[in-house]
Design a protein that fits this description.
- By secondary structure, this protein is of the alpha/beta class.
- The protein contains 13 helices and eleven strands.
- 31% of the residues lie in helices and 14% in strands.
- The radius of gyration is 23 Å and the shape is globular.
Length: 427
Amino acid sequence: MKKHHSIIILGLLFAFLGSPLRSSGQARYLGGDISLLTKYEEHGAKYLTADGQPIDDMLAFFKSQGWNSMRVRLFVDPSKAPEDDKGEGVCQDLDYVVKLGKRIKEAGLKLMLDFHYSDTWTDPSQHTTPSAWNSSDPAVLEQMLYDYTVASLNTLKAAGAEPDFIQPGNEITYGMLWPTGHCYPDGSDCDGGTFANFARYLKAGIRGCRETCPAAKIVIQAELSTWQNVASFFTTLSGYSVDYDVIGLSYYPQFHGPLATLEGIISNFESAYPSKSIQIVEAGYFHKWYPGDAPYNTTSTWPATDEGQRKFTADLIEMLNRHKAVDGFYWWFPEANEFGLDWATNRVTDNWYNASLWDNETGRALPALKELKRFLNGEPDGIRQTENEKAVVKTTAIYDLQGRKLNSQPTTFRKGIYICAGRKFVV
């Protein structure tokens, strides 16, 4: 559900019109991939608000910040992952995800489930077939993937953790279940794999999702290596009649370049796929220790500081809010926080992550967290809308955006944006 924020609105207007102001009706989803939250809590990480107050319930706190949806990854058997990957946070088996997913749903939040279809990380550089799926026969692998999808979702449903969004694969621009499902975005075969194999695996996963959780939206996630690759990928998917609802994108400036690149992709997708919504399912930026080996250095625009991270967030949200098709935004790994841990003996990961929304050294929430709320407004200038809340002001002076004072009688109102007591409101 969309979170709404109250605006200053003239009480007399409601008395005459008889109904509250309305938004566009499009639900918007704000949240983060909090897949390691359980581990940080178990290890004793101390989370504080921006002004240093302890946070007792992280999900309740996220909800108080306007977040309404959370993303959680699922590995087939993370105990088989390489040790280095475990040190980066690979631990989310089905039992782990059931418990965290149940907490998320009980908190009144939406749940996005991210199937990795591997024992470890999947991304454009790796999509290792799960060790237990010991076959090179595409027909066998297709059935294994379908069965696993259905069994996992049934387990989640039985526990009260039915997902609202499902990703059948993580960053699948180059296929999945390598080597047989390895391919290029334009449909070409790669290293013994074929796009045809990949498409049958993907469609098997989607079929399992549709049959088991028919209300869930299917998200196809690609990463922005280049515009040509992303465009080719979704064009090729169309040729295979792949059934999905949401175009999911990853955006990290250090890997993908300036905001103009992302906006160009979004604009093209809005034209090419008008029936699809678009969500940024992974994004983030460093508040310190910008990686020296990053392909793009954006610190001249957004320094690797608390303020630089906040400015990145503000600029990104302002751009996203110009595009009506964009209805979801998820921060990657917002919960990373080493404060309160004995890192030498009780750490959660092998390296600090300095692009979260908490400061590892102080435990305090960073300014970017507050900035994220602007995404829910859906307006480029942060104009707030409401469906359920009313606030009354004493003044009756109302102006249009050209500064002209209106007659105080509500009958003069038409749909538009007006100013009262220095605040904008929407009719």
